[in-house]
Amino acid sequence: MRPQALSTIQVDDERVIVTEWRFPPGAETGWHTHAHNYVVVPMTDGSLVLETDEGIKSTQLIKGSAYARQVGVRHNVINPGPGEVIFVEVETR
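Above: the chain's sequence. Below: its structure in token form.
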């Protein structure tokens, strides 16, 4: 069993939910489905593995290089690397 990624909600209002995610080495989110459109802003460089319904995918995070995804994404996010990976997720309502 993997350790859990650590989430800290920074803003939760009628417009957005802003969450900082910290992934120690080997940590995962657990399977989840996104209920909102969202933007991810990496705070560190790093690699993540995404377990999806379509199989396993890898992604490279580049500090400060944001990306967006649509509502309905279902996955488990895992940090396979030796260092901590941190990003901020901004969900729009």
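The beta strands are 6-12, 16-23, 32-33, 37-42, 46-52, 55-61, 67-69, 74-78, 85-92.
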